[in-house]
From TrEMBL:
The lineage of its organism: Bacteria, Bacillati, Actinomycetota, Actinomycetes, Kitasatosporales. InterPro entries: Cl-channel_core (IPR014743), ClC (IPR001807), ClC-type_chloride_channel (IPR050368). It comes from Streptomyces pulveraceus. It comes from the Bacteria. Signal peptide: none annotated. The chain crosses the membrane at residues 24-46, 67-90, 110-129, 195-216, 236-259, 271-293, 313-332, 362-378, 385-412. Its main location: membrane. Keywords: Membrane, Transmembrane, Transmembrane helix. This is Ion channel protein. It is found in: Membrane. Coiled coil: none annotated. It is a multi-pass membrane protein.
C-alpha cells in the first residue's frame, strides 16, 4: 500500500536553488581560507629562503648579491637541486609542467609534499615562474582529498572549482578574479542551472581566499603609475598597437615552447635538463639584470616606480630576456606558473613603448602591454582584462582595454597554446 501511494505521489520535487546553495557556503569558506594559508605559507617560506640565498650567503662570501657570477651559479645550482628533488620525491613532483594548465584534475596526495618543496626552491632560486600553477594544483589535491572523506557523495567537480577559486582569489586579493576565471571554465561545459548558481560556491571560496590574504598579507597589484585621466583619439591607435605587440611577443614564446621542451626532453633525465635550464637562466639573468629574475611581482613594481629610469632599449632587452627566461623555465621542468612573469614582460614592453613615444600615457601603455602578452600566454580574456586593469586601478582605461583586446584576441585565438599534450604537441 505504501509503495502504491509513493507511486501515485510521483517523484520528489527537486530542491530549490537556495536549498542547493546553502550547504556549499561553509565548505567554500573553509577551502578558501585553506587555499590562502597554503599560498601565504609557501610564499613566506620562499621569501625567507630567497633572503638566505641572495643576501646572507653572497654577503658572507663577499660576493655581489646580483653579480653575473652569482646569478649564473645560483640559477645553475637551483636547476641541479630541483632536478635531484624531482627525481627523488614521491610522484616526481607531479606531471611534466609543460603538459599542465592552471586548473587540472586532482593530483594524488602523496605528490603534494614534493611539489611544495620544489615550488619553494623554484621561487627562492630566482626562476622566472610564479606560484599560481603548483599552488593551485596542491590546493585542488588537498580540497579533493578532504572533501571526498568528509562528504563522499559530493561530485569531484565541486572541490576542484572551490580550490581553484580560493587560490585565484588569494593570488589576486579579490574574488572577482576567481569569478571571472571560473565563469570561462564553467561556460565551456554543459550544465544545469543559472551560471551564477554554478559560480556561487567558487565565489564564496574566492572571497574567503581573498579576504584571508588581504587581512594577513595586504597584497597590492597597483603600480602607482600616473593616472590616465584624459583619453584622446590617438590613444585608441596606441592601445591597439601595443596590445598587438604584446600578443606577438607572447605568441613567439608560445611557438618556441614545444621546441624548447623537445630539446630539454632529449636530455632524458630531469637532473641534467634542470641543471642546463638553470645555467641558461643564469646567463639570461646576467644579460637582463637582476630585475629579470624571480616571479616578477616585486620586480615589476621597481620598474614602474621609475618609468624614466631606463632607456627604451633597456626595457626592450628586459622584456625579451624575461620572455626567453619564461620559455626556458617552463619547458625544462621547473614547477611554476606563467602569469606573473608574463605581467613583467607586458609592463617592460609598455614602458618601452612609452619611452619611445612619450606622448603615449604610461598607464595606458603598461596595461595594453600586459593585456596583449597575457592573451597570448593564458588564452583567457577575462583574466587578461582584469589583470591589466588592476595594475593601475583606473576605470578610465577599461574602454580602451576592451577595444585593444579585440584585434589582439583575433590574433591569438585558434593558435597553439602554451601547454603541451603528452606527446609534446601543443594544445589548440
Amino acid at each position: 500500500m505504501a509503495t502504491e501511494s509513493s507511486a501515485l505521489a510521483g517523484p520528489a520535487p527537486e530542491p530549490t536553488p537556495v536549498r542547493r546553495l546553502l550547504p556549499v557556503i561553509v565548505p567554500a569558506l573553509a577551502i578558501g581560507v585553506l587555499c590562502a594559508l597554503v599560498l601565504l605559507g609557501i610564499s613566506l617560506l620562499a621569501e625567507r629562503l630567497q633572503d638566505v640565498l641572495w643576501r646572507t650567503l653572497p654577503d658572507a662570501l663577499s660576493i655581489g648579491r646580483y653579480s653575473s657570477l652569482w646569478m649564473i651559479v645560483m640559477l645553475t645550482a637551483s636547476g641541479l637541486a630541483v632536478g635531484l628533488l624531482i627525481r627523488a620525491v614521491p610522484g616526481h613532483a607531479g606531471p611534466d609542467p609543460a603538459t599542465t594548465g592552471l586548473v587540472d584534475p586532482p593530483l594524488p596526495p602523496g605528490v603534494v609534499p614534493g611539489l611544495l618543496l620544489v615550488t619553494v626552491l623554484t621561487l627562492a632560486g630566482g626562476i622566472s615562474l610564479g606560484p599560481e600553477n603548483p599552488i593551485t594544483a596542491v590546493n585542488i589535491a588537498l580540497a579533493f582529498w578532504l572533501g571526498r572523506r568528509l562528504a563522499p557523495g559530493t561530485p569531484a567537480e565541486l572541490w576542484l572549482s572551490l580550490a581553484a577559486a580560493g587560490t585565484v582569489g588569494a593570488l589576486f586579493g579579490t574574488p572577482v578574479a576567481a569569478a571571472l576565471i571560473l565563469s570561462e571554465a564553467l561556460a565551456s561545459r554543459a550544465g544545469r542551472g543559472a551560471l551564477w548558481d554554478r559560480l556561487f560556491g567558487p565565489l564564496a571560496a574566492g572571497t574567503a581566499g581573498a579576504l584571508t590574504m588581504t587581512l594577513l598579507a595586504h597584497p597590492s597589484f597597483d603600480l602607482s603609475l600616473p593616472p590616465y585621466t584624459h583619453p584622446h583619439w590617438g590613444d585608441l591607435f596606441s592601445s591597439v598597437v601595443i596590445a598587438l605587440a604584446g600578443a606577438v611577443l607572447g605568441l613567439l614564446a608560445v611557438y618556441a615552447f614545444p621546441y624548447a621542451h623537445r630539446l630539454f626532453r632529449g636530455l632524458k633525465h630531469p637532473v641534467p635538463a634542470l641543471t642546463a635550464g638553470g645555467l641558461l637562466l643564469g646567463l639570461l639573468g646576467a644579460l637582463g639584470g637582476h630585475l629579470t629574475l624571480f616571479k616578477g611581482l616585486d620586480e615589476v613594481k621597481e620598474l614602474a616606480a621609475d618609468p624614466s629610469g631606463w632607456s627604451a632599449g633597456r626595457f626592450a632587452v628586459m622584456a625579451a630576456v624575461k620572455t626567453a627566461a619564461l620559455v626556458i623555465a617552463a619547458s625544462c621542468g621547473f614547477r611554476g606558473g606563467r602569469i606573473f612573469p608574463a605581467v613583467f614582460v607586458g609592463v617592460a614592453l609598455g614602458l618601452c613603448a612609452h619611452a619611445l613615444v612619450p606622448s603615449v600615457p604610461v598607464a595606458l601603455a603598461v596595461t595594453c602591454g600586459v593585456l596583449g602578452i597575457l592573451l597570448a600566454i593564458t588564452r583567457q580574456g577575462w583574466l587578461s582584462l582584469f589583470t591589466a586593469a588592476v595594475l593601475v586601478g583606473d576605470a578610465a582605461v577599461l574602454p580602451l582595454l576592451c577595444v585593444a583586446s579585440l584585434p589582439a584576441w583575433l590574433l591569438v585565438t585558434g593558435r597553439p597554446q602554451m601547454q603541451l599534450r603528452e606527446d609534446g604537441t601543443p594544445l589548440r
